[in-house]
Amino acid sequence: MYTILIVDDEKLELEAFTESVPWASMGIRVIGTAKNGREALELTQRLNPDIVLTDVRMPIMDGLEFAKRAKQFNKHLKIVFLSGHDEFQYIKTALAVEASGYLLKPIDMEELTLLMDKVKVKCEEAKLIAQSEEMAKDKQLRLLLTENSPEHRNHLAAGLHQLDRGAFPLQGPYRAAYLTVSYCGNAGAAGEASEPVSEPIQSSVRDALARSLRALGYNGRCLDWEHGTFTALFQSDQEDEAMWDRLQLLLADDFPIRLTIGLSSTGARLENAYTLFREAQLASDHAFYWGLGSLLVADRLRTPVTEEIEVEDTRAHLCRLIGHQQSEETETEVARFFRELRDRCIHRHLVRTAAVRLVSGVLQHFGTAMKELSIPAMNSEWEIMNNCASMAEIEEHVRHVCHRLIMALSEKDKDRHQHIVRQIRSIIETSYQKPITVEDIAREVYLSPNYIRTIFKEKTGQTILEVITQHRMEQASLLLADKSLKIHEIAGRVGYENVSYFCSIFQKTTGLTPNSYRKQIC
């Protein structure tokens, strides 16, 4: 359906156009009205209609002046003029601003319908042209960001400037941003562990990203890059970092994700985009040190260093602490080890290597306890470390291994694990109505999140999050039988603040949308 804005300074005529014309049967929806050109210009910029039906003679700003200015904002806007005057000069001026039609009052409904059919064809043509133009701009920017040759970059920058002079003048300053989307599920902001985003979430985030950037006044382009990542190039100003901060908050409110943003330094010219893009990518890599969901500014970050890391003293100290079952002291020693690596900005590959050596040495020392716990063999540690996106995740894994060893040494009673599983199930059954996380459950049973994840999976064959979701969907299915409850009320009662996310999970679990399920059972 196409959208139309109606503009007339006569109140009765404005009401008649809005209420008496069967717009819906023409495939058109009225999204606003204005009584003069100035109001119409403000609404056009805010609502971005497909069509404007405007009187010619109006106070403050007439229809012809409005049309000239509106076309500067949106060259594809279709404008139809209304007039009580069958004058050649008005028609001539209307044609000069590329009017899509000209109607004389009083309006003949058949004539209006025929004209709107023609205008809709022009709207469709304009959309195809606009899509083609946007694709050309995206392609040109992508080439500029990846071109190795400085000479070729100059030509590509000039071409992008020709395609979009407003967004891309040859002179800057410019900055680039590299955005990485990580799915954190029900873990929320409290946990560090994350997963790659699924295609449905990627698509939803893509749309929300475009809307949010427009709302924040973003002046640039943002491209889909590799899966789970986006790249942006924009003209820089003093509010850059505040805008990206706000973007992270906006998306975190709507999606179970963390948005990590690497932000480049400034470049003086458009052809600097290639260098700025590389800077932004490298800056985003520092999420390894500072955590997913960080805003990482290139000129405030240190270059990672390659230095020898001594792990033997730490390994020996940890073995002593674990042997004496000193949990707090063990956690303190693990935290100290990784804090020093972070402070020295050790390259992430060397951090992973050091962590593998440390864990492998500790596991070798406690071979018997390791067998009792079915801890992965040492050659699996590389796979585990490589799957950790940040140093915090690696640190958590090392802490988790140490904790499990202490538990094996201090508790031989296997039934204790079953008791923990029963506790977790009880907490889920009494707390599913609120946004409960694995971290919340871990605090209630006085154990680490990773530890309860592991034993719960070992004893039940399901993850804690799977059981939370399963219980919520079972309760939601029961509540759907009550027709007095709205879908958003049911979502809230089973612990989901985001109705769209609840509907997505329900459909994934049952194969039906909540409304379809309700129709089937009621």
TrEMBL record:
InterPro entries: CdaR_GGDEF, CheY-like_superfamily, Homeodomain-like_sf, HptR, HTH_AraC, Sig_transdc_resp-reg_receiver, Tscrpt_reg_AraC-type_HTH. One of its GO terms (cellular component) is cytoplasm. Residues 3-120 form the Response regulatory domain. It comes from the Bacteria. Keywords: Cytoplasm, DNA-binding, Phosphoprotein, Transcription, Transcription regulation, Two-component regulatory system. Its main location: cytoplasm. The modification 4-aspartylphosphate is found at residue 55. It holds the Pfam family Response_reg. PROSITE patterns: HTH_ARAC_FAMILY_2, RESPONSE_REGULATORY. It is found in: Cytoplasm. Residues 422-520 form the HTH araC/xylS-type domain. Signal peptide: none annotated. GO terms for biological process: phosphorelay signal transduction system. Coiled coil: none annotated. One of its GO terms (molecular function) is DNA-binding transcription factor activity. Gene3D superfamilies: 3.40.50.2300, Homeodomain-like (1.10.10.60). The keyword Cytoplasm applies. This is Two-component system response regulator YesN.
